[in-house]
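ARCHIVE RECORD
Type: protein–small molecule complex
Small molecule: pyridoxal-5'-phosphate
Source of inputs: curated submission
Record status: active
Notes field left blank by submitter.
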Amino acid sequence: MPAINRFAGQKIDMLETQHRRRKLVSIMPQADMTVMKDGKRLISFSNNDYLGLSRHPRVLAAAQDAMEKYGAGAGASRMVTGNHPLYAELEETLARIKHTEASCVFGSGYLANIGIITALMGESDLILGDKLSHACMIDGAKLSGASFHRFAHNDLAHCGALLEKYRSKHQKCLIMTERVFSMDGDCAPLAAFSTLAGEYDAWLLVDDAHGLGVLPSVKTGVDIWMGTLSKSAGAYGGYACATRDVVDYLITSARTLIYSTALPPSVVGAATAALQLMEQDRELCARPLKLARMFCRMLKLPQAQSSIVPVILGREEKALQAAQWLEEKGFLVIPIRPPTVRVGAARLRVTFSALHKEEQVRAFAEALKAGGFV
Ligand SMILES: *Cc1c(COP(=O)(O)O)cnc(C)c1O
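STRUCTURE (tokenized, with ligand):
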């Protein structure tokens, strides 16, 4: 057997024994937050399309128009000939929503973080990041070559202690955190982090992947907001929002923007239409959090801070078992296991969308109770 096959096979066997093997599950998404899986209709509580905009008629029409006008693909990097006219409107809309001077769009949220962090930071610099930061922030920090330390989750005192210890040995300093944490659904104390950053002459980068469109925009002293257009905006792509100078610098230096093909026109059209709907429809934007809070009240869980509610179960098998039980009852929830979350904290990551009906949320909570999982 070729050595590469032996290597891969052994790795898979080991993950299987640890209940950590990941598999791609084929499903047919439907228009109403349900999916067809193995011929059965399931209500999905595992979708980041928090506002249901990926199916909104205006979003679909904008995608179609853009494609007909400008083609299926962009054909080149934005630096070359890929900067089709739809980008300007998208970037203006983003800057308006985030209350910043300017914005620039990347191929995905992952590419945005890699590009932003490596453009700003280098070997003589210091990066401090929340322990629960998303993989792409961590990869960006590592790739930048800066000294990188993590502080305990949302722990200002720990972040302060690291600043006290390391700040003076470095030139620039970046603090990275998330507005809403993707696996826990809790929020970072941004105003306090902003003050701390100010005290130590550090910059603050906040990942808003799960806040956009679900929590109201805030003006706190964040130097760079980044996020994705693939969740509440229902399309695809990543972005940075900051001052004009910072954005102009990113455009000229972020390698993931310069050396990667621009987004397809349809995607840019769709994202712009979705953001405009977000700006117009406050009630739609408020709905995911309202449903998450209703669910938490029903199960006596701590009050939801976002559209994400973790139901922590402990061992990997328990999370797999709960997901299996719920599937039999007609619900789709993906179990989240280490290394995505810490060992002993395998969980169901439940997400709420404006498209869910209250009866569906109630039935889902009842099923969790009936299975003895809460
Ligand atoms: C999903 C996510 C990203 C990555 O965004 P993509 O557009 O999917 O690449 C970045 N940060 C956080 C916190 C996320 O949840």
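CURATOR ANNOTATION: The pocket of pyridoxal-5'-phosphate is lined by residues 108-110, 134, 136, 178, 182, 207, 209-210, 228, 230, 238 (CB under 6 Å).
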